[in-house]
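Re: the 486-residue chain
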Amino acid sequence: MSNNFISNLRSIDFFGAPLVQHIDRDQSIYKSIFGGIMTLLICSASLSYAIWVIYQWQTNQYSPKISSSAFVSNFELLDLNYDVIKFYYWRSDEGMIDPFEQKVLLPLLTYAENYTLRDKQVLEISNQTTPFGSRYIIPKMKIGQTNFNGILMTTTEMYIQIVKCSPELLKEGEQCASEEITNQFYSQQLNTIVAELQYKQLDSKDGSITSSVQELLIQLEESNCYTLNTYIQSNFYEVKNSLLFGSPEYFEFVNGALIQPQTNSVQYCKQAFGDETYALLYVGIKGNQVKTIFEYPNAGDLLANVGSIISVLFLFRHVILFLNSYFLNEKIIHDVISFYYPQFSQIKIYKNWKRDITKVVLHNQQLELKKYLEFYQNIKQTIKHKLTFINIFYEISRLYILIRANKFQDEIKKCHSVGLKLEYLKLSTIVIDPFSSSSREIDEQILNDEDIGILSLQERQNQSNFKIPVKEADSMNFYDINKIKQ
């Protein structure tokens, strides 16, 4: 039960590590100078692009995703705390009579609540001046709304009337213009009132609030009542500008108006509003507005942007892997050739700019180029075949055949019970061993630590410094005959 549990526990390990065989003592994965240079270039380019993307995001150079749709607003966030509407008499000449300053006409502000006119008041002239020398008249705008059958409608509306001056509307000490000034005013050319609608909107680049102005022209005539029905529109903004987490910000501004011009008689307007009216500006707000969503790039968008470029840069990885694989094969072939031909690693090869071999030198002696190239191609093909797995297993099987030719099976089976002993690590200096003997012959047969690496490359390097004395030709053995001079 315990073994099964441990086995199942191991089977669900997501972090299992494979055995990585080392190519040599220094590295388990072949790495080249060219690969290192390309890695530095790719990582530097990727980091530089990531910094550039962050810089662009910080400086608001990325445009947001913008979507718009119809929206029924409740106007809770509608910003009216500024001069939404202001108007003035346009004077093309400094000598023209301003009807508001000369009290020829009076601007009246009337609010209609539930379609009933109330709170009539005369508007004062402000200290703000226009580029033409006139002064602005700025009414205070307020609205109210109610929901009627699912439709949001404004219940407080605003009327700006331009009426004939009468003493009842003036303050104490003020008086209306004389008939002469009045006649002189109506005889002027281009008697025009300019109404300015101040709009606000969000700049999609950085989310800042910008302003714009729309001008409405109202003509003044003694016999007509010019009417502008103005239906103000608003834009509801939802701004999603958090980098990772956070709630969106909401704004609502007046950003447009629908205008319905109409010309009536003075008598019609007097009957409707109770005063001798020459111009009327009706201002109302409707509930069907526009909702705009600004969705600025977040952390996921930035990472996706950076990741896409990095993915393109890492396409060079396939080229580098191909080259490293090629150089790794060449290195292994070169090393294996050196196992059989130790002098091969001492050969110096000279190439021209086309990478063609022009000269081969060994121990300061030039080799015949044609013979060397033929030799290298033949031995290279042999080593390639030798390094295949099938061939390696085949050669191992032939080694057993050679051993079997000289040893019986029972003797070969004994190798499974043979190994290096750790008796010398014990505290006791007395070792009881049936094979213990002072005989040099028996000592030579006892396995020790040197047997572990006796066939390794490290031992080969050690042996290169060990000099075997020169013997006579008739006394030379296999090792003497084939020894390579370093």
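The CA atoms of residues 426 and 432 lie 12 Å apart.
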